[in-house]
């Protein structure tokens, strides 16, 4: 595959970064994951706006205008044969001698790669997935899409070790989100998802789900559900750019609702597929 690194398109195995990059030494950077359908970056303007917000949150100056980002992204998609892809974009604070204090006058490092965007498994839509709950051990700026994913990785691995596909995170007795997804509970026909604050990532897929629900007159509240409400929910879903919206049918080994993907999920999934076309 062809990647983009600091102004150049080159084969992935020829791309090299310094061991002094602050992304490598300090996890000092932010990222985006952007789905590409049939050669077109999906909801690109929204991803670029969130990138701007993340950069602002960590005090890195945006190295490119939206026009420049769009050009780089369109070129990278074409160089990787269009079709469906998952684009990964990251900006780190740059290369400097190791120091917690920001370096002065250093250009950020910019890296983009194209990964396969695998279609969501049919079995996930027919049977749903398994999830576990675990304590949300992350910091208090989860609204920043930081490359520093050690906590997320530990929690996702805990799910994997339990034979589950996602970990749902509990902070102070309330569901925040998944280790790599936003989360939803459906209770008596009403969809709940945690509000946008420093405890969750403002998911692009989440925003779309909220808009689709509003247009279809499906009741939805941006309100966090308690752990006990979650355990009694009729439906649980997760969403992300790479997985769209997926039903959870087993939580900590207990059946969720009917044990099958629920009717509200079916409706949202259909709306999502329609919107994607
Ligand atoms: N993760 N919350 C967290 C913690 C995430 O890592 C993600 C996505 C989301 C969903 O956001 P969006 O709908 O914008 O993809 C929510 C990406 C896919 C990743 O890290 O690979």
Automatic annotation (TrEMBL):
One of its GO terms (cellular component) is cytosol. The keyword Transferase applies. This is D-alanine aminotransferase. It comes from the Bacteria. The gene is dat_1. Its EC number is 2.6.1.21. GO terms for biological process: amino acid biosynthetic process; D-amino acid metabolic process; folic acid biosynthetic process. InterPro entries: Aminotrans_IV, Aminotrans_IV_CS, Aminotransferase-like, BCAT-like_C, BCAT-like_N, Class-IV_PLP-Dep_Aminotrnsfr, D_amino_transT. Acts on the D-isomers of alanine, leucine, aspartate, glutamate, aminobutyrate, norvaline and asparagine. The enzyme transfers an amino group from a substrate D-amino acid to the pyridoxal phosphate cofactor to form pyridoxamine and an alpha-keto acid in the first half-reaction. CDD domains: D-AAT_like (cd01558). Its cofactor is pyridoxal 5'-phosphate. PANTHER family: AMINO-ACID AMINOTRANSFERASE, D-ALANINE AMINOTRANSFERASE. SUPFAM superfamilies: D-aminoacid aminotransferase-like PLP-dependent enzymes. It catalyses: 4-amino-4-deoxychorismate = 4-aminobenzoate + pyruvate + H(+); D-alanine + 2-oxoglutarate = D-glutamate + pyruvate. It comes from Methylophaga muralis. Belongs to the class-IV pyridoxal-phosphate-dependent aminotransferase family. One of its GO terms (molecular function) is pyridoxal phosphate binding. Keywords: Aminotransferase, Folate biosynthesis, Pyridoxal phosphate, Transferase. Pathway: Cofactor biosynthesis; tetrahydrofolate biosynthesis; 4-aminobenzoate from chorismate: step 2/2. Homodimer. The keyword Transferase applies.
